[in-house]
Design brief:
Largest sheet: none
Radius of gyration: 17 Å
Shape: globular
Structural class: mainly alpha
Order of helices and strands: HHHHH
Number of strands: 0
Number of helices: 5
Length: 159
């Protein structure tokens, strides 16, 4: 029932850390599922006020023996697929704002993420379809990087 909301919360946490919003994490850092759960348990992540307002919850990971609210691996992985969609949008918007290096960083990150998904043996379900969509997001990002290289806005060896 709350799966989509949980995915959205995880996405917001992962994306904000990836953007470098928090001082204790370097820009481009990916939170693991345990990092997400730790933050939800109340571990401060670098700021005193939370934009998520979920830091007081006690949220376990992958609970199978009892009926409690928890983060599942599937919710985390689905949030990662949503992250690639947001990063594809960010790549386009970054160029619009004159930041030509960010699409290169995004491209490398999303390709690494896609390589991780390819290792997984996913069944033919929503996670499989969403992970297949990552390659279309990679194509969008590569198109942005290619356009930048054609216009000589980035060094040739950067892409």
């Amino acid at each position: 029932m709350w799966s989509r909301h949980t995915q959205d919360t995880i996405l917001a946490m992962i994306f904000s850390v990836w953007l470098g919003v928090y001082d204790e994490y370097e820009q481009g850092t990916l939170l693991t599922i345990n990092d997400v759960a730790s933050y939800m348990k109340g571990k401060p992540i670098g700021i005193t006020t939370s934009i998520f307002n979920v830091h007081l919850l006690l949220v376990p990971v992958n609970v199978k023996d009892r009926d409690v609210f928890h983060i599942t691996t599937e919710e985390y992985l689905l949030a990662l697929t949503d992250l690639t969609e947001e990063l594809a949008r960010l790549a386009v918007n970054s160029v619009t704002l004159g930041d030509y290096q960010r699409p290169i960083q995004i491209s490398k990150f999303v390709k690494d993420l896609h390589a991780g998904f390819q290792i997984l043996n996913l069944k033919n379900d929503i996670l499989r379809r969403k992970s297949d969509a990552i390659k279309y997001n990679i194509k969008k990002i590569e198109d942005v990087v290619y356009d930048l290289s054609l216009r000589n806005l980035i060094p040739r060896n950067a892409s």
